Amino acid sequence: MPTLPHPLHATPATGPLVSILESWTLHEYRAVSSTNLIAATLPAWTAVRADTQSAGRGRFQRSWISDQGGLWLSAVVPSSPGKLARRALPLAAGLAICNALQELGVQGFRLRWPNDVLVNDQKLAGLLIDQFAPGLAVVGIGINVGNQPDVQDASLKNCSIRLADLLPTPPKLSVLTDLILRRLRTVLLELNQQSAPALFLRVNQLWGPPRTVELDLDGTLRRGLFTGVDSEGRLRLADLCGNLSFYDAHQVRHLTEI
Predict the structure, then answer these.
(1) Which residues contact 162 (CB under 8 A, 6 or more apart)?
(2) Strand order of the sheet with strand 220-229?
(3) Cα(88)–Cα(100) distance, rounded to whole angstroms?
(4) Of 58, 82, 142, 257, whose CB is crowded by the most CB atoms within 10 A?
(5) C-alpha–C-alpha distance, residues 74 and 77, integer Å
(6) Which pLDDT belongs to residue 12?
């Protein structure tokens, strides 16, 4: 059962309501520019949720519609140095979201590299990892729940999907916040106790069947068969002859499924 938040204090309307949610301290706002930016100066195991964001964003500064009724959440977590840990964190966050969706009873979802969640090729959730301070990372999470992103941006019609479209009764944002934070902490603690390659094997079960993709490597295009990530967490691309190439997330500006 979800743990009900225990309120510590409420500041004026422009400030946060602060509460304790199991092992997390949760700051909730009515409206912010970006929950990731609010979380930038906060300690580990602190989270920020807002009803709306005016400057929500995805990878490479792409805008993310954050209208009323969606879950806009940022979680501050410890981060370890090194390439393997840097590659593991976004994938671990995607795994945590998928675990939460499974618990809710959502079916037919899959990951799109690096950590978008799709249902019927429509986007349900996205994540953005920021690092503002050494030893800490901010995991930004956006999930369409009962909001209407296509009303804000007509180009999103038929490109996005909501929990309200998938479940008879979508969860309340408070319940979903609790579930996501619990699952995220669990996956990150498991990652610390196990090896990153073990996590990559679990994530590789969530991509769906291999599919043809085109990678935009900052202007250079590469096409091939996406076959998941390797034991070091790099994107694995096979050409027509079966030869493999490997790419780090920062090298790939955009992945398009063909």
Answers:
(1) 70, 124, 144, 145, 146, 147, 170
(2) 244-247, 235-238, 220-229, 211-217, 254-257
(3) 18
(4) 142
(5) 10
(6) 38
The CATH class for the domain spanning 6-203 reads alpha beta
The percent of residues above 90 in pLDDT, for the chain, comes to 84
Q: In sequence order, what are the residues at sequence separation of 6 or more whose Cβ sits closer than 8 angstroms to the Cβ of residue 33? A: 53, 54, 55
Asked whether the predicted pLDDT for residue 127 surpasses 80, the reply is: yes
Residue ranges of alpha helices (H) inside 11-82 are 35-39
Q: Is domain 211-257 in CATH 2.60.120.10, yes or no?
A: no
* Rounded distance between C-alpha atoms, residue 149 and residue 50, angstroms: 16
Domain regions of the chain by residue span: 6-203, 211-257
Start-end of H helices in the chain: 35-39, 83-104, 149-152, 163-166, 173-193, 196-203
Question: What pLDDT score was predicted for residue 1?
Answer: 40
- Does residue 147 surpass a pLDDT of 50? yes
Q: How much is the pTM?
A: 0.92
Residue 14 has what pLDDT?
62
Is the CA virtual torsion 36, 159, 175, 179 positive or negative? negative
